[in-house]
Structure formats: C-alpha cells, structure tokens
Write a structure and sequence with these properties.
74% helix, mainly alpha, 133 residues, globular
Length: 133
C-alpha cells in the first residue's frame, strides 16, 4: 500500500496524531529515554500507517507552552486520524490505533516501576481520543 493513497494533509494528520501522542507523554513527565522507545515503536509500524509514519516529513508542528495546549492539538488529531482511516482505509484504522497504543505503552512502561499518575492519566486520554471516532 502506498502513502499516495492519502493526501499530504491526511498523512500529516496521522503523523501529528501519532508523534503528538508520544509528545504528550513527554509533557506529562515520561522520561526522555522512554520517549525514544515510543518513537521507535512508531517507526516500526507496518502497512499504510507504517509508510506514513516512516516518511521523512516536516509537517508535524506541535505547539504549546503547556500540556493542556499540546493536548488541545493532539487529542482531536488522534480522533480525526481514526475517523479518516475508518472512512478511507478501515483495515488501517485498527493498525493505527494499535501502533499508537504500542508506542505510548512502550514509552510509559520503560520508566522504572509504574508510570506516574500524570502519565497514566494521559494514556487514558489518548485511548479515549482514539476510541472517540
């Protein structure tokens, strides 16, 4: 499957959503090394989602001076990505959801012991945004 089956804007939405989810965990306090593991999980995706996330692109622009501002951008992007894939590539919607959850859980579990309450809460919000489509 080729990335060309999505518009540049749609591919950007997927990248913003996926990399934004990992960035939200960083903003919530997940350790830097853990975030690296989450990003590696994103680039290890397969299928159309894998092609989109692995593409070299400068279209991911995450702005915000607070976790709330970042969440205001990323959480709706996660829902939009799921909706878009559900309409255009239904088989890839599950792949995207699984990829994002694998990346965020990988980042959260890398920390020594249990993730902090803030990271755990952010994981729930990411999952809810994915399931809201």
């Amino acid at each position: 499957m080729s990335v060309t089956t999505l518009t540049a804007q749609d591919a950007g939405t997927l990248r913003t959503a996926a990399y934004g989810a990992v960035s939200l965990l960083a903003a919530a306090g997940a350790p830097h090394k853990a975030i690296s593991h989450g990003s590696i999980a994103l680039t290890s995706a397969t299928g159309l989602v894998g092609h989109v996330l692995a593409a070299k692109s400068k279209d991911v622009h995450l702005h915000g001076k607070s976790v709330a501002e970042l969440a205001d951008q990323v959480l709706p992007s996660l829902t939009a990505a799921m909706r878009l894939l559900g309409e255009q590539h239904p088989a890839e919607a599950g792949n995207f959801r699984e990829t994002v959850l694998t990346a965020t859980e990988s980042a959260a579990q890398f920390a020594q012991g249990a993730p902090s309450p803030a990271v755990t809460a952010m994981l729930r919000k990411i999952t809810a945004a994915l399931d809201a489509a």
